[in-house]
Design goal:
Oligomer: single chain
CATH topology of the largest domain: UDP-n-acetylglucosamine1-carboxyvinyl-transferase, Chain
Structural class: alpha/beta
Shape: globular
Distance between the termini: 23 Å
Radius of gyration: 21 Å
Number of strands: 23
Strand order of the largest sheet: 2-15-17-16
CATH architecture of the largest domain: Alpha-beta prism
Length: 421
């Protein structure tokens, strides 16, 4: 069964949307609250598949969650962590953030998830844990078992995190609870998605953790010590917001969303990409508006700082009237699906002219036609398909349920966007 990507619209867009909290900040907030020295209250948390799985996993490991409102929760850390079976779904945050915490429990914790998750890289993270003194069974991929001993030695760890910045964040998040802290260095080629590491470091420092990073060096030193409890408000997810803000570039009109004044999310990259593709960005206190003419400008995009934009950027460039390219995103071949291969296959099936490069895509002008856009169980692919539906009559998506991974009411927000909600 196929599903329409978007309801019909008439005229340019005129919408103001409220995008839910950041998945990245919610996941880190939950985990740090479980590791903290007292209860914490988190407001504005995202309620989506990934964050529900994170919450369930932390409960398995001993943390307590008390709902105080629709998007507010109190997290009470356990006195000691308990081992158990962990379901990660398709979430990289779970399979890479939780093993270091599970190593602090006493006993074995088995990690497994969706079939697609078994293809996602995790070995460098598990090798880092091994260097820190943790025993791992089947450390190549899911399913694997972390044998917790109630404590982790920590110390010097050297890993290649070129496939995912989450390998770095996963170790940093629990590093202060290791007996010797953590001296962590990236030894490989280009480190992707640095703003996500910056988010991890900022959230640790907010909780009193001493963490040092020499400018220009991919090395971090985390001092051993407590992680302080902190009541926080989670920012809106700016990558999810980008999907809606990109719509005027395709359909014309304007879209406004909440936008934090100060953030460690990749805000500047998001807005610069939308500008490069033809959007007019207007900032005002607490929000941003993007206006478009319905014409996409071709651009040469470096998305190494915000690779989560790859799918919507490719969809937009497929609608441009001149050649464009995306680079710095070779690692997204190991995301929920091989995003570069999926984009090449799906867009070319509609008449597009995409070709993969070593670290991205080359995209030539083409006229896209009707057909089914396959999302490959990937929420970012679904977002790309929805944008394409604004320009391509007769386009449908095979699955919208995958959008619940990070944005549970994507269909409702999209209906509001096009003015039929």
């Amino acid at each position: 069964m196929t599903l329409p990507a978007a309801p019909a619209r008439s005229g340019p867009l005129r919408a103001t949307l409220v995008v839910p909290g950041s998945k990245s900040a919610t996941a880190r907030g939950y985990l740090l609250a479980a590791l903290a020295d007292a209860p914490s209250v988190l407001t504005g948390v995202l309620d989506a598949r990934d964050t529900r799985l994170m919450r369930a996993a932390l409960q398995t490991l001993g943390a307590q969650f008390t709902d105080l409102g629709p998007d507010t929760v109190r997290v009470t850390p356990p006195v000691t962590f308990t081992a158990g079976d962990i379901e990660v779904g398709l979430a990289g945050t779970l399979m890479r953030f939780l093993p270091p915490l599970a190593a602090l429990a006493q006993g074995p914790s088995r990690f497994d998830g969706d079939a697609e998750a078994r293809l996602r890289p995790v070995a460098p993270l598990l090798d880092g844990l091994r260097q820190a003194g943790v025993r791992i069974e089947h450390p190549e991929a899911l399913p694997f078992i972390v044998h917790g001993a109630g404590a982790v030695r920590g110390g010097t760890v050297r890993i290649d995190a070129s496939a995912s910045s989450q390998f770095i964040s996963g170790l940093l998040l629990s590093g202060a609870r290791f007996a010797e802290g953590l001296d962590l260095a990236h030894t490989g080629a280009t480190l992707p998605s640095r703003p996500h590491i910056a988010l991890t470091v900022a959230m640790l420092r907010e909780r009193g953790v001493t963490i040092e990073n020499t400018p220009g060096q991919d090395r971090w030193h985390v001092a051993p010590g407590p992680i302080g409890a902190r009541d926080v408000t989670i920012e809106p997810d700016l990558i999810n917001a980008a999907t809606f803000l990109a719509a005027p570039l395709v359909a014309g009109g304007s879209v406004t969303t909440a936008w934090p004044e100060h953030t460690v999310q990749a805000a500047d990259t998001v807005l610069s990409v939308l500008t490069a593709l033809g959007g007019e960005v207007t900032r005002s206190p607490g929000e941003v508006t993007v206006t478009g003419t319905g014409r996409v400008s071709a651009a040469e995009l470096d998305l190494s700082e915000a690779s989560e934009l790859t799918c919507i950027a490719a969809a937009l460039l497929a609608l441009a009237d001149a050649p464009g390219s995306i680079r710095g995103v070779g690692h997204v071949r190991g995301h929920e699906t091989d995003r570069l291969a999926a984009l090449e296959t799906e867009l070319n099936a509609l008449g597009g002219r995409l070709a993969q490069t070593a670290d991205g895509l080359r995209i030539a002008p083409a006229t896209l036609g009707a057909g089914v856009f396959h999302t490959c169980a990937d929420h970012r692919m679904a977002h790309a398909g929805a944008l394409l539906s604004l320009a391509v009559d007769g386009l449908s998506l095979d699955d919208l349920n995958c959008t619940t991974k990070t944005l549970p009411d994507f269909p409702g927000l999209w209906a509001t966007l096009v003015g039929v909600a």
